[in-house]
Design goal:
mainly alpha; 434 Repressor (Amino-terminal Domain); Lambda_DNA-bd_dom_sf; Helix-turn-helix domain-containing protein; Cro/C1-type_HTH; single chain; DNA-binding
């Protein structure tokens, strides 16, 4: 599980809601979470702000793989 998926699940937000809130498709969120795509830097900042965290937390994966 990557950080975006972890943060989204922790807040009990669906991919669809996150996508609507960030003005992207649900498919984009799914691709970020699966590692198929990486959000552009500007969108990564929006994601960090959305979860009230920093960009480095959004892209950090190590800890999240062991929590869930």
């Amino acid at each position: 599980m990557n950080a975006i998926e972890f943060l989204r699940n922790e807040k009990k937000i669906t991919q669809e809601k996150m996508a609507n809130d960030l003005r992207v498709t649900q498919s984009a969120v799914a691709q970020w979470e699966s590692g198929k795509r990486v959000p552009p830097l500007k969108k990564a900042k929006e994601i960090a702000d959305y979860f009230n965290t920093t960009i480095d937390v959004v892209f950090f994966e190590g800890e999240y793989n062991t929590k869930l």
